[in-house]
Amino acid sequence: MTEQRWEVPESRFVVVEAEYPPHDGKSRRSCKLEIIQGAKPISTAAEKHLRATFFAERDELLSTGRYERLNPDPIFSTNLGVRLAGNNPHGCRVVSYLTSIRNAHHRFL
Question: Can you give the pLDDT at residue 27?
Fold first, then answer.
């Protein structure tokens, strides 16, 4: 896997783009927005705002009929995923989802 990271100075977020080796003739890339290690956790209010914003964007995409709901983790069902109902013009299946991890103090990371 190859990985690139970008961050804005004094931001608590970093963009992480990764490309994985091909498997069965298919390649996979990911792009994540993560909190920088050691950064102050997001408040509960900010977490709620992030979720509400993601839900609004997800619902708008679903309303077009070109996207479908996706649960990327069936063990911890969140229904926070959405993906193209088919392949994009480049033959790729594009998936977007929101996950959260809580630290020992139960704060959103």
Answer: 84
